[in-house]
Amino acid sequence: MRITNRMGLPEALVKAVSVKRHNKPGQLSATTLLNGTKQILLTDRHWESLEEDVADRFWAILGTAVHGLLEHAGENELVEEFVSHDVDGVTVTGRIDNYNTKTGVVTDYKTVSATRILRQDFGDWWKQGMIYAWLLRGIDLPVSKCRFISMIKDHKKRDAARNPSYPQTPMHVYEFDVTERGLAEIGAFVADKVARYKLHREMADDDIPPCSPEERWERPSEFAVMKAGLKRAVRKFDSRQEADAFAGGKGSGHFVETRPGESVRCQDWCACSGFCNFRCGNIRGEVSA
Q: How many domains does the chain divide into?
């Protein structure tokens, strides 16, 4: 990946955000497995052609700085521990921020937005933590619990005072126990992702199936019943039929506004989107009705 510098920022910043190739040939990291197979393969194939600007990687600088401060090990702790396991000829790897050999607790550090905490958007963290636990179990190191410690980069005290659901401090802890059932579930998840990776890696770019809606962070279309003169929707629906029926029952002056869905990751957070034939819900060249 090439780092561009449209603003002419200092070379120190360019070096700070330079990206090393995440996976060696034949390897898949725990965090890579959370991506769609198409994204994994296209990123690997087109790595040398990918571009990202220094200014767009500002938050990566913060994340790197946080990890640098926290890389010193305490008593009974392993820091930045690298573990791996072979799955049907593919090496699955993980680099664990912190593992306490006495308590069996895995700790990972994140820099996030308050919105993520408000949404309780922890599904990928559960998978990441369980993959770490699964990898450590493979080398006879038990894991009792996974903890994700988040530094909230846009925390606002006023919002915390007004809204009890808003994170009350700039740090948030998400944790869960590691169970046998969870380990079995994540083992099946890893095996499935490896199988899909092997199945599709010989395909041409455009023939690889699109990432799933979940992997694309898809927001579905919605149909808003509006009233003339008002800016806010009277009510929102998931289907056009329901919205039309509701608007018809409300009388004149009401109409339905279609708000198209979007694949947020494809639009804003996928470095290989320029090489992908999937476009915000449609395969290139197709148009939604």
A: 2
